[in-house]
Amino acid sequence: MGYVNQLQSGGWGSILLWCYTGANLWFVWRPSSRWVLVAAAAAPSIAVMFLSYAFNNKLNDFWAGGYLKQSSEVAHRITGSNRPYRQLDSDAQEEINKFDELAHKHNTTILSGLIIGGSAPILGYYHFGWLGSVTALIITGLAVWLLTYKSIQELNREAENIAEVYKAKYEN
Hints:
The protein has one domain. It is 87% helix and 0% strand. It has helices at 3-8, 11-28, 34-54, 56-79, 90-170.
C-alpha cells in the first residue's frame, strides 16, 4: 500500500485529530491565512498515519495480539510452514491484506483517540482554566471510548475473523 493510499485510509481518527488540532491552533495562534492553519493542523494527523504505517505489525500485536496469535497458529497448522502466507491460497491472502488495511485505519484511530484524550485536559486548562479542564474530561472520555476502545474491539473482531476464514476454507 503506497503513501497516498495510506493517507486516504486514515479514517475518522485522523480527521478528528486534524479538526481538534485546528481548533486548538485557532485558539492559540490565529494565523493570518486559513491555509496556513489547515496545513499546520494536518501535521499531527499525517505523523500519526505514517507512524501507524511504520509500526503496523507491532501495533497489531499490541492491540490484538491474542487473536492474531491464534490466527497464525491455525495458518501454521494448515500449511505446516513457518511462513504460511505464501502457501495460503489467494482468497486467504486477500483476507490478510484486507486486515492489514483495516488495521492501519484502526491503529490510526486508536492513536488519535489517545492523543486527543491525553491532551484535552491540559489544553482545556491552558485555554479556559479549571472549567476548561473539567469540560475536557468529557471530551477525553468520549475520545477514548469512541475512538480508542471501539477501534480496539473492532480490530480484535477482525483478527478473530481471519482465523475463522482459515478454518472455513481449509478444514472442510
